[in-house]
Amino acid sequence: MEIRSFRTGLSLIWTYDWVPLPVMYPQLIFLAVHCYFIVCIFCRQFIITPTAANYTVVDLYFPIMTSVEFICYVGWMKVAMELLNPFGEDDDDFDCNFLLDRNLTISLTAVDNAFDDIPDISPDMFWHDTVSPLYSQEMAGKHVNFYVGSANRAE
Question: Which of 47, 51, 81, 152 is the most buried (most CB within 10 A)?
Fold first, then answer.
């Protein structure tokens, strides 16, 4: 039963990977971030009203914090855009071909060529040690199902 629920969870993850994110969502985020900062440029300015004490002086400044906020949001947005397809073929993506080729080569070597090369068993420095469990005795008898999600009991 647990294997079936684990397999169902894996197929759900595979389905999430198989169905791509619609193109509209990244475009909407891109437009929202840029429109927000265009509005911020105008809204965070100092406005001189006719009733001000010094009506002729124009206070010109560079919006430093708005610029820092813009850089952070745009950087965050660029990272999110890259994470849409982390296993692609760009220079910034994960190099999965090397990992797959290496693992396939080692697996085939182990099955085809090295099936008779059994290593010698020799005692190491931990041979006679007893390993103490990392949990307490009261937790030893408690059964925990690790593959049940956090929303299992939600109704």
Answer: 81
